[in-house]
Amino acid sequence: MPNIVIAGGGIAGLTLASALSRKGRPVTVLEARRREDTRGGAALAMAPNAVWVLRRLGLADAVTAAGTRITRYAFRRESGAELKTVSFQPLEAVWHESAWCVPRAHILEVLASTLPPEALRLEAPLETVRWNGRGFDLSGPFGRLSADLLVGADGAHSIVREQLWPPAPPQYQGFVAVRGILAHRLLPSQQDTAVQTWGAHGEFGYSAMGPDAVYWFATFRWADPENLPDWTAVLTEMAPWGSLASEFAHRTPSTARLIHPIYDRVVPFADLGIPCTLIGDAAHWMTPNTGQGACQGILDAWVLAEQLVQTSNVRTALSRYREIRLKRALRVARLSHMLGRIIHDPRHWPQNLVARLLPWTPSTVIQRAMAEAVGSPRQLGLE
Predict the structure, then answer these.
(1) 49: Cα within 13 Å, side-chain hemisphere
(2) Cβ distance 289 to 340 under 8 Å?
(3) HSE-up of 159 (CA within 13 Å, CB side)?
């Protein structure tokens, strides 16, 4: 049985660790952050594909207990006028699961609770990786560690990818994302609806996250990713989205706000011929425009765990994992990239064209586009 080390204790890394531990495969997870630093991160959209995996890990009910089921998506203009409302029912029918909005910190806590205490090493950043011809020599503040199999689940700025694969620098997409959580009770008729408002230079959206909280996000063009806007600038940028957006931004506590420049890296990683692979953002860093970043990482983790359990040949398992997952995940990343470009095009006409066409577009067409990002168990090789 190989000695498995997972670099990174985020959503993808902990899902993989949980899946392998459940199958009796011991793992070591190296996570750079302290426990208290893993308790932020606003909310995540758990699409039916991710909940499908969590169900098979026996964790779906525990994860969704802190969230809100989302059954429809409403598109609006800045004026508040409704463009289109689309049901998630077709996706639910394919996966036999619903979509949810869940606090990211809660998902991490549920996943971590499935691991033996010794499996998760916090405040243990990986600093150097060396292949010695038989295995990996790993080092950091935790000392030295060996691994027969190394999985890079260490996020967008992956040390594993940086040290073992050729450089693939991320590309700034020209916009920033602002996220927040605040205490707020939406009307009962709005509890199951995710809202996205399209504007001239970005988007604003929100959904319930439990009965007494709201998760909201906004994106807008920003020239310099090294010098992010302060909150006064954020409020100015959000003003065109109307009173509700401004209210949410004003009322969100400073401790519940996040501002990030948006990059992506839609570059495949090669098979190095050694027992190492990448999952999640380390493998396919994508923009948030399809809401699939964490979901694709969860799918990576499930497929990789299944392949490692099904064969004793690690190289074969890693090859099968790449074959099943990489092309599909990069396809979703490219779709997300395209949507981000449309939403933030400085010429404005792409947004205006979409807004004009959307009310007249059959719901089935929009649902098929959503299905393209989420996939189906058969498409993803899960059945």
Answers:
(1) 28
(2) yes
(3) 18
**Cβ contact 270:319 at 8 Å:** no
- The DSSP element (H or E) to which 22 belongs, if any, is helix 11-22
Q: Largest Cα–Cα distance of the chain, in whole Å?
A: 62
The span from the CA of 108 to the CA of 12, in Å, is 10
Domains of the chain: 4-170+272-374 (3.50.50.60)
CA torsion through residues 48, 343, 215, 40, sign: positive
- CB neighbours of residue 360 within 10 Å: 8
Q: Of 29, 31, 27, 20, which Cα lies nearest the Cα of 4?
A: 27
Flag whether the pTM goes above 0.90.
Answer: yes
CA 296 to chain centre: 7
Q: How far is CA 252 from the centre of its chain?
A: 22
> What is the DSSP pairing of strand 99-103 with strand 68-70?
antiparallel
Number of other residues whose CB lies within 10 A of the CB of residue 21: 18
Contact of 52 with 95, CB cutoff 8 Å: yes
Q: Where are the beta strands (DSSP E) in 24-104?
A: 27-30, 43-46, 68-70, 72-77, 82-87, 99-103
CA distances to 100, 130, 147, 262 from 120, rounded to whole Å, are 27, 21, 15, 29
Tell me whether residue 232 is exposed, middle or buried, using C-beta atoms within 10 angstroms of its C-beta: 0 to 12, 13 to 18, 19 or more.
exposed
Q: What is the DSSP string of 276-315?
A: EEE-GGGT-B--GGGS-HHHHHHHHHHHHHHHHHH-S-HH
Q: What is the pLDDT of residues 289-314, one digit of tens each?
A: 999 999 999 999 999 999 999 998 99
Our CA angle for 172, 154, 344, nearest 5°, is: 20
Q: Which residues touch 362 (CB under 8 Å, ≥6 apart)?
A: none
Report pLDDT digits (tens) over 52-109: 999 999 999 999 999 999 999 999 988 878 899 999 999 999 999 999 999 999 999 9
Contacts of 15 (CB under 8 A, 6+ apart): 53, 57, 111, 297, 298, 301, 302
* Residue closest to 9 by CA, chosen among 102, 105, 120: 120
